[in-house]
Design a protein that fits this description.
single chain; 223 residues; alpha/beta; 5-stranded mixed β-sheet; 11 helices; 9 strands; globular
């Protein structure tokens, strides 16, 4: 299903959000650009699981501490699995809300949706409440599952103080001092764990469009 008439695509909304954020100093901009370049040159996006590969099974706690297993969810139909950095990331919040808007259509196609971050369960619960989400928000402490999906990188040491100054103290959010994050990645997984659509980008501003998720689910239903 195409986005509602008059509703900007997610990429457009992210661009508008970026324009509304407080301006950075030249030094801050240069630090973030260099950090982004380092992540991109690492080739991390190329290491992520691709369309046609098998999605690793996992069991993770949700926002209220209950265990959620991918294999069990797949018994009821396809699952959309999206990895996000944390509630401190404005791009992530925008993406999660955009996916909430298509949740009725996802459910109508016999599928479900779950979002995963390295945050602690209490931060996952805060993410759920802050963004009015009605799908599972899971905690992947230590990025164990994100690593299996090929998404994990480490924030360079020389830019960490800048993250903290922005309110993005990762050790406080994630409960460890690794300073590791997943790059944004979204996977539409068929009941047999085959990935119908795999998407990952080293640029946190790039997210899989909701319309692409719905199209992948429809294509999977058509066989």
């Amino acid at each position: 299903m195409e986005p509602e008439l008059g509703t900007p695509k997610l990429a457009t909304q992210i661009n508008e959000l970026e324009q509304s954020l407080p301006p950075l100093s030249q030094e801050q901009s240069l630090l973030l650009e260099e950090a982004a370049r380092k992540v991109d040159l690492s080739g991390i996006a190329d290491q992520a699981l691709k369309t046609g590969e098998l999605a690793p099974d996992f069991t993770l706690p949700n926002a209220v501490g209950s265990s959620v297993r991918l294999e069990r969810a797949l018994q009821d139909g396809p699952v959309v699995v999206t990895f996000y950095r944390g509630m401190w990331c404005p791009y992530c919040s925008l993406q999660l809300r955009a996916y909430q808007k298509i949740l009725p259509e996802v459910i109508g196609l016999g599928a479900s949706l779950m979002a995963i971050s390295p945050q602690s369960p209490d931060k996952s619960q805060a993410t759920l409440l802050k963004n009015f989400l009605q799908y599972e928000v899971l905690s992947d402490l230590g990025n164990v599952v994100a690593r299996q999906y090929g998404l994990v990188y480490q924030v360079p040491e020389w830019v960490r103080s800048l993250y903290i100054s922005f309110g993005s103290d990762l050790p406080a959010f994630n409960g460890d001092t690794s300073w590791e994050l997943p790059i944004p990645g979204t996977f539409v997984v068929a009941p047999d764990r085959r990935i119908l659509l795999g998407y990952a980008s080293s640029d946190p501003r790039n997210r899989l469009e909701p319309a692409a998720i719905l199209e992948a689910l429809k294509a999977g239903a058509r066989g």
